[in-house]
C-alpha cells in the first residue's frame, strides 16, 4: 500500500517516469474519449465536445505547472530537490482524475454542461427515487475518496522529494498551488 | 547473540564514555577516560548505513539500487544523519 501511496520513496526515477508516461497516455486518451476537460490544475469537468488537442494541452500544461510548484517549493526548503522527482509526482497525482473521468462513461455529466452554460441560473433537480439517491451518495463518496487520495499522495510524495518536515513547507507548497490554479485558469481561458 | 554496545547511560540517558578496555588474549586491562568515537555514538542502523555508503564508494544511486529504495529516500536519510551528527556538537 505504501508503494502505491508514495512511489517516489521506493521506485527508481526512470522506471517511474516510464510508468507515468504510459499512465499519462492512457489517462489522456480516456479523458478525450469520455469528454473530460481539465480547466485548471486541480479540476476536472466534462463537455459535450472536446478537442483532443486542447485536452492534451491542458493536461500537459497542468502537469508542468504542478511539477514547477513542487520543484520551486522543494528548492526553497531543500536545494537538492530534483526536477525528475517533481515531474514524476506531478504526473502520478493525476491518476485520481483519470479514474474520475470514467464516471462519465454514460455521458451523464457532459450532457449537463450545456444547460449550465446557457442558463446563468443553475437549477438543482433533486433525485426522485432511492436508486438515484444511492448513485448520488456513492459518486460523492468516490469523489471525496479521490480527493483524499490525491492529498495523501501529495503529502507523502513531497515529504520524500524535498525532505519536507515542517508545516510551513506545506504552506509554501499550498501557496504555489494557488498560483498554478490562477495561471492555468487564465491560460486555458485565452488559449 | 551478538551483544549490543550501550552508548547511553540507562540512568540519565547521557552519552557514555569508555573507562576500561581489556585484552581478550592476556587479560591486560587499560583504564582511563576516553570519549566514544563519533561513529559509535550513532544508532546501529545509522552505523550500518554509513558502512554501506562507504562500501558503495559513496554512490547514493548504487546504494538505492542495493537497498531497493529510491535515490531521494537515501539522500534524505543521509541528510538527516548529517544533521544528527552536527547536532552532537562535534
Structure, explained:
The complex is a heterodimer of chains A (191) and B (90). In chain A, helix 3 runs parallel beside helix 5 and helix 4 packs antiparallel against helix 9 (167-190). Chain A has a two-stranded antiparallel sheet with strand order 1-2. Chain A has helices at residues 2-5, 7-10, 13-33, 52-77, 83-92, 95-101, 108-118, 130-162, 167-190; strands at residues 36-40, 43-46. Chain A is globular. Chain A has 191 residues and is mainly α. Chain A has nine helices and two strands; from the N terminus they run αααββαααααα. Chain A has one domain. By secondary structure, chain B is an alpha+beta fold. Chain B has a domain at 39-87. Helix content of chain B is 46%, strand content 14%. Chain B has four helices and two strands. Chain B has helices at residues 38-41, 44-55, 60-67, 71-87; strands spanning 17-22, 29-35. Chain B has a two-stranded antiparallel ribbon. In chain B, a hairpin with a 6-residue loop joins strand 1 and strand 2 (29-35). In chain B, helix 3 packs across helix 4. Chain B is elongated, with a radius of gyration of 17 Å. The two termini of chain B are 32 Å apart. The mean pLDDT of chain B is 89. At the A-B interface, helix 2 of A face helix 4 of B.
